[in-house]
From TrEMBL:
Catalytic function, reaction form: O-phospho-L-tyrosyl-[protein] + H2O = L-tyrosyl-[protein] + phosphate
Enzyme class: hydrolase
SMART domains for the chain: LMWPc
Molecular-function annotations in GO: protein tyrosine phosphatase activity
Pfam families: LMWPc (PF01451)
Entry EC number(s): 3.1.3.48
UniProt record similarity statement: Belongs to the low molecular weight phosphotyrosine protein phosphatase family.
Ranges of residues in domain Phosphotyrosine protein phosphatase I: 2-147
Keywords on record: Hydrolase, Protein phosphatase
Lineage: superkingdom: Bacteria
Organism of derivation: Anaerosacchariphilus hominis
Name of the featured protein: protein-tyrosine-phosphatase
Keyword presence, Hydrolase: yes
Amino acid sequence: MIKVLFICHGNICRSTMAQYVMQDLVTRHGLADHFYIDSAATSMEEIGNPVHRGTRAKLKEVGIPCGDHRAVQMQRSDYDKYDYIIGMDNWNRRNMMRILGKDPEGKVSLLLDYTDHPRDIADPWYTGNFDATYNDVKEGCEALLAHIGETKGGRL
């Protein structure tokens, strides 16, 4: 089982979008039984809140099921539970490391690190642009799945 945890600041926009986009990808590739995918926040601001209406609307528009995830905060113990702990921007990475303390196994990365053009994914909470965020998340999730496939030597 490959365990992936997506992280953003509040766990209502980008990380939940990545969670559901990645789940849709692995399902469409017949790999759902090989993955456990979840998301969390670095902050406590949105704990308990549902997926943001803009994220929910964008996922519906592109035909990706959106579940009833509620925002939770990342915990230090998540390091031992997950194979990949993936943030959306460098600010997330700094806060992830503040929570985790260290990354001896190299599990922490940013989603777009797996693409040909690593960069931050803008937070639609501030930009209002859920289309741009979705495009970046989709690109990153596709690249992450390809990376995992290569890393596992096609044994998924």
